[in-house]
# Entry
Amino acid sequence: MMIKINSKFILINSEVFPLLKNAELLIDENTGKIKSVSEAACNKKNTVNSEKDKNYSTLIIPGLLNAHIHTELTIEANGSTPHIFSEWVISLIKMRMNLSAQETAAIRKKAYEISIKSGVTAIGDIVPLEQFEEYIANCAINYKAENYTAGKDFKLQNLNSKDEAGKYGIAHSNSNNNNNGYDNRYVQYGKYDKYDNYDNYDIDINNDITVKRFNIEHPRIKSYIEIIGLAPSLADIKIKELEKTLNYYYKYCNNNEKSKQRGFYMSDVYDKNDDFQRSEYTAEDTFLPGLSPHSVYSVSKELFKKLSEKNKEWKLDMAIHTSEHKSEISFLKEGRGDIAENLLNALQLGAFSNPSKMYGTANYSTPADYLNSIEMLSSKTALIHANEINEHDIQIIKDSGASIVHCPRSNDFFNSSRLPLRKLLDNNINVGLGTDSLYSNSSISILDELKYARKIHNEENNHCVSSKELFKMATVNNAAILNIPHLTGTLETGSYADFIIFKIPKDLKLTEDNVFDKIIDFEEKDILKVFIGGKEVYRNVRAYSV
Ligand SMILES: [Zn+2]
# Structure
């Protein structure tokens, strides 16, 4: 089956044939991939979203990617949230101390929903090692995408209790009454489902209808397993834990060579002994693991070296928080500053606060220099933040092929130096865009991040980085960082049908010169629909009614 969508404008990506007019997007429903995109004449047959008789037009663009987020920290900061890094970390630890695994899962779910609603179709998420098994169990169920017949395949229940619903129910949301504007029309069931808001769901009592489960409740996820261990004696223990966790992941996967080469092992197989199946909608590229040795101030040299050695076999992509704060440099060189003196002492890690003595790190001028010396930098590495970098670092990063994830609002939250973005782009370093967590930002929307990036790198800085370049960072560059290039962040033939439909005024004149600025001007309320892998995952009910 094919899905055809017509739109007044379609933007393929920031590079190729930038803007198609009166265009048509053809999607192969079985693969979730784009069959074709062209300026062909509109054919009303089999067309959804026909614009005839509507008082608005539409623009389709690739889904946005958020290359750095901590979904488990989707906790709002307020006026009393500290902006000094050590105090911020401690306040976070205190706040999270009492959260149960279930509460953390609910926080993550909130992050997925907010992301999708704001047009984010793929994220680079940081997940603590000890949470990863639970995390994958929660995500795994979402890979099912099959036809189910109500009453035949599932026992219908009254949704009197959340628990029952989670076990047996097929539930339809009553979209018009859905007070959060989130049209989650898709059926939800399964033993992993944990929903808070059952009041809005009605049982579908029509026994013979066949419903298709499009239940993609999260964006595509690159899940970087976070590893922390400053005590050198922890290195072996952490590696063992990591091996166990990765084995748990591999249990769901085969050793498909192609996947292996790309650094992940998911493919379209299923384990009959497990409640985990896939059909036409494959998990490949939907949930991928990566590694995140946290930073130079939270991982020992031993652990870094062992990870680097092990990863020759694993071939996983890495994300490392690097040069986010000036105090990382003083920690490394002389065991001084906010991290060495305040943070580590508060965490009772004072014994490890002087790596210059322990590891002779004073020989290295910066975190990037140090990471390079212990073979942590390569084209599979993304350095998160990288605000406090010098010319030498830029050269090292360029030579290694590592990427950078820029998180401008989070960086300003901590009053860090401004990323030398123009210089990095001129050096052909791949720079992406991330929000970091909500706890150091005002939202986790990449549209909002783009607005802020435009303000600081363009409006306030001699127009030095264009809106087109910023858009590329949030799409194509981020896809390269998450190691799914050409598959998302673009609407080329053969890529996944991950896209946003914007509602635009009928008389809006979009050109190749103004389209990127207009996109950044758009707000969440302008989004009509969001698709992932050809499935509609969000419909903005309010936008239709206005
Ligand atoms: Zn972060």
User: Anything to note?
Assistant: The chain is about 30% helix and 20% strand.
